Sequence to fold (137 residues):
Amino acid sequence: MKSNLSLCKLLACLATVGTLPLSAVANPILDDYRAAARQEKAAFQDFSLAAGQKLYSTVGPNQVSCASCHTDSPKNVGKHAKTNKLIEPLAPSANPKRFTDASQVEKWFKRNCNDALARACTAQEKGDFMSYVLSVK
Fold:
């Protein structure tokens, strides 16, 4: 009887994992950035939440930051600084679709890094940024 109860608990846990946003379990996009960061820099250790949070609020040469449109918290609905178009929350805790499609993630990094920082982001920066945003609960 006890083994049946344990099996039921295990199955319930596995069923829950299937419904969690991708950020709550493994994230293959983040794993790809980790591999790319190792290629860019042999001394790479891992991503930094603090560096990601700093990047999120860094005002670049174009006088905008990620927070300019996404608000001080990635959990909030944002608004585009120029068009005033509403932007769904960036944090997967508030918007489970975020960081689930690699081509979309790369598209937005390309556009937004250039807009905010006037350059492409490195794999380290992308991973730091994603690590921070994925950690926001």
Summary: The chain has one domain: 27-135. The first helix runs from residue 2 to 19. Residues 91 and 133 are 5 Å apart (CA to CA).
